[in-house]
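Supplementary Methods. Inverse-folding protocol.

Structures were first reduced to a discrete structure-token string of length 111. This string, shown here, constituted the complete conditioning input.
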């Protein structure tokens, strides 16, 4: 039997696979085999809906974000193009209205 990956949602190792998806019977989470290969390649981040983000993707802001240390507010629905994935808590490096910022992927959705 091949080694199955642990569930990224709950961490249990009782997963099984179909032709294109892995399934976790403990929490009901399912993810594609191709997502597993992307995660093994290097830095990745997940958006608010669990979709894997990669360098160069475009994202949309899902809620108004106040920028600490300035009066700038990034409005909900703002499209951000050409993101870069970085390590750390604020894992997206991007430019918004000409300002270079680091944002959290949990407040984004893939466009």
């Amino acid at each position: 039997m091949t080694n199955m990956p642990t569930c990224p949602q709950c961490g249990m190792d009782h997963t099984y696979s179909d032709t294109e998806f892995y399934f976790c019977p403990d929490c009901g989470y399912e993810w594609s085999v191709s997502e597993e290969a992307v995660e093994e390649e290097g830095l990745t981040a997940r958006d608010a809906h669990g979709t894997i983000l990669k360098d160069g993707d475009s994202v949309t802001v899902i809620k108004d974000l106040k920028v600490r240390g300035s009066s700038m507010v990034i409005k909900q629905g703002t499209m951000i193009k050409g993101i870069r994935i970085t390590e750390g808590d604020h894992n997206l490096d991007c430019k918004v209205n000409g300002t270079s910022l680091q944002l959290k992927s949990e407040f984004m959705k893939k466009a």
